Amino acid sequence: MSISSEHKPLGKQVTGSLHTLSPIVELNVGGELYTTTLSTLKKHPGSKLAEMFTGQPKLRTDSEGRFFIDRPGTYFKYILEYLRSNQVPTQCIQDVYKEALFYDIEPLIKQLEDSPQIFGELVARKQFLARVPNYSENIELMIRIARAEAVASRRSSVIVCVVRTEEDVARCQDALNSLDMDKKSVVKFGPWKAAPSISDLLDCIQMDVEAKGYKISFQPHVAEKGFRVKSHDFFYKFLFTWW
């Protein structure tokens, strides 16, 4: 039996310009269903979201004819609420920020970047870490060492050397030469020119390793008696727990 055009699912009609569509739009965003209007979606003409619904169809439809966007649907409600009422979300800020960047909604991006959470991450913490040489590479090196030592073990450890200033570099090297261990397995951070302390950097290391899904803790690494330099001035043991 044929279906009249007025009862066809929305997705079956997207063969021409989107200007011919009903002003009411049904969306499937990562499995979450939303109903809104074209004018809401196109509120910011320069955004990627507006471009999705301008001119020729750029989106696929699901089996029910709803426009499908392959993004996390949970956070789209905050994007939609902002488009409807200019209400800046106060929950899930980091995740909503990622979605605002994807949809390229510039006013929302700027307002989120003024929030304490995003401002603190982008302007304070990230700017500090950018001044720590090879920070990201060292995080990956720590993980590789820990994984290599995890065979048939519940835990594995990585020794980290942290030097705050140029003056500490020579002292750290002297201490490193006295350590009874494979020096290639010691991951060195620093020096850096910024206000945060060694404890701040250690917290950052833990945060960023945990953000990758690992369970980790750290403590000062104390060498045996007779060590020429106090090892806990520079050396810390990061413990990875696997199960």
From TrEMBL:
Origin organism lineage: Eukaryota, Metazoa, Chordata, Craniata, Vertebrata
Q: Which SMART domains match?
A: BTB
Give the InterPro entries listed for this entry: BTB/POZ_dom, KCTD7/14_C, SKP1/BTB/POZ_sf, T1-type_BTB
Which GO annotations describe the biological process of this protein?
protein homooligomerization
Q: Which residues form the BTB domain?
A: 23-120
Query: Where on the tree of life does the source sit, at the highest rank?
Result: Eukaryota
Specify the protein name: KCD14 protein
